[in-house]
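Reply to dn_fold:

You asked what the input looked like. This is it:
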Amino acid sequence: MQIVAKPARRIRTVEGSCWACREHRVKCKLQKPNCSRCLKKGLSCEYGKYRLKWGAIVAPDKFGQKKRSSASQQEAKLEIMSLPLPRFNSDSKMMYFQMIISPRLTARSVPWDYDSLKFASKDTLLKDLIDAMSCAHFMVQTKQEPELYKSKQIARVSALKNLSSILQLDPSAESKINPTAIFRGSVLLGLLDGVIEPDSSSYRPTQHINGGRAILDKYRDQITNNTAVTLKDKVNAEIMSVFATMDLTYSLLTGSSPYFKPQFWFEFGSCDAWWGNVDQSDPFLEIMSILTTLAVLGHSMKTSHRPPSMDQLLEIQERLAQFILPARSAQAIVKTSERSSFQSWSCFCSAYANTAMIYCLRALWSCTLEDDRVQCAVSMFVDDLISASNDTLQHCLLFPLLIAGYHTQDTRQRDVIRSSCMTCYGYLFFGSIRLIIEFLEERWARSTERLSEVRIEDSLKVKLEFDLEPFPEFAEEGPTTTWWDNFEEFGRKTFVF
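and this is what came back:
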């Protein structure tokens, strides 16, 4: 009898697979930030050459090590979840920040360069802030609240005292001050209190925006006057672009004047900003410049109650229209790797352009929520969102999600926006997303309740045959309600970008 040897089991993984697909020996679709299999199964989707494994120290866990049995894996999981806090030490917090937090602050989910992060190990202020950010973010995922909360608070208070003492130094000692490090610390503190762990009962983002602006004013010569040189450093470019975006979205929501001029955005051409390295002529920089112009006009309108000229608004709308993709165009394109990447970026830019259009119509033109142009911009944004689903850039559409989500009146569109918010939270684990979801759900609930009241009123009129004027078209907001009545309170509690 001839014995036929069984063929060796074929490994079905592909290069660059996420760790969940590697473990289950299945093909990965390679979508980022979450592949389709992990989204469907509700798994944590992580990419990278190394996988963080929490033990006595944080060490890289290379794929291909001996697989544990199911029972052994359960024991290991329980052991990891019950680790005492001291094992989450400064070195592991730095690696956690670099491998877990920093990729979530970029559009392409690329970690900040480790060599560029060495500045923090020599600076007590930055080291404390990175420790606090890592504890706050890790706390959300592991639920080790008592231990991690205490550690985070100690690091945060230490950083605040350090920053305060530096800013209060005698002018004669300012030669020893590193303005770039102070500004970095201010931005990281803003990310901690306004993005990772915002407090809905306080206005910390307002304090951090004012603090960052004051630092830039005080050390303008050292930080901003030589912008071209400053932005060549990867970390400097990342941090400056993050602050500029937080400052812009804060200004759009609250009606304050943005710190940077519209032309400043073009300084990020060919620099490693959070949205990536793009040319100076890239549409995204043009759109951010237009948004800054709109924020300036919004501040003027809020404070002086004088709207911009019609010609100025029409010119801005024409500039925005060239970046807005026609409805459903993205789905009709045959996806090659190069074409798909181009279309993905086009959808990303179109989403921000539609957001700018909504702001222009609602805040400056004073259009009603039911205006066809407003609802058209919302619909086109949702089309962009559907086209960008399972895409690397989706988690960087939080500001457009907030604005379009507030203005949509369609249940299906709300479901798409809700699903996108939940997907973003499942990847980012940022507290700001929880506030966005709560804000939108509350607004949608009020809208549904108000619409129900309108329908009851209409049905009563028909039933009782009252000879009355027709009930006015449903409008949730009063005639004197402004953009800032709707968004200012929320904008002072969290950063959205």
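The first strand starts at residue 52 and ends at 54.
Hope that clears it up.
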